[in-house]
Amino acid sequence: MPDLPPELAIATLKIARDLAVEVGSQLVTLADGLRVSTDKGTVDVVTKADRHSEEALTSALHRHFPTHRIAAEEGTLLGPADSEWTWHVDPLDGTANYSRGLPAWAISLGLSRGERPVLGVIHAPQMGFTVYGTVGIGAWCGEAPLPAATAPGAERSWIIATDWPWDLVERERTVRLLGRMAPRIRQYKTYGSAAVDYAHVALGRCDAYAISHIFRWDQAGGAAILAALGYEMRTWSGKPWSLADRDIIACRPGMWSAFAEWLA
Q1: Across the chain, how many H-helices and E-strands are there?
Q2: Percent of the chain scoring above 90 in pLDDT
Q3: Distance between CA 1 and CA 70 in Å, rounded?
Q4: 88 and 210 inside one domain
Q5: Global pTM value
Q6: Same domain, yes or no, for 46 and 123?
Q7: Is residue 150 part of a domain?
Q8: In sequence order, what E strands does 73-211 have?
Q9: pLDDT value for 31
Q10: Per the domain annotation, does 72 fall within a domain?
């Protein structure tokens, strides 16, 4: 059963999709002036584009959904704090790529009900796709419906997306996982953008996404899309995943047993 009535869910999804496309076009057009970056004090960076995008996205979402909470990566908080509905906004996921002129970056919008993502949009204008969906109804790329998750092929055919967490200690967990996967899978991919990774799983280009430390804004949109398509999502400890968790394995049905072995 969808969390929103179907007509309302589709209308909400269209608003979010069109907003992401509009702001994404601005980020492409204004790139030369918005790529100036500053250090966040870790290995992460923030650009003028992040702030431009966040202001445009959050102000528009607040106008459309004044009873919803809106929480964005660079600190914007709008709407009632006690709302059961929260928009998690990553205004530019893949900032390091954007700042270097690499195409793997995206806008990610996710609507959750409590700790459960129910609707998501990922717009990657320079990679040529907009993926969006809502739980209980389905997901699309552009105007084309996406197929439901299917069982994986043989282990040696698997392609698994992952990335370095910003937490440097957490990178050791990723290194251990890669070492255990290496003899058994075809490839791992790292794009520098959780939103792009989630989208590639939804599009069937990757079979799973694994990361050991991630934030709500990074994953709410992508997790909603994968949930709409029937992908399995667990924490690295094996329990069912929720938005409160900071690690995730999102995979085709039937892959978890291999991950459980690699993570033991």
Answers
A1: 8, 15
A2: 84
A3: 24
A4: no
A5: 0.94
A6: yes
A7: no
A8: 77-78, 85-93, 106-113, 116-124, 129-134, 138-141, 144-145, 159-162, 187-189, 208-211
A9: 82
A10: yes
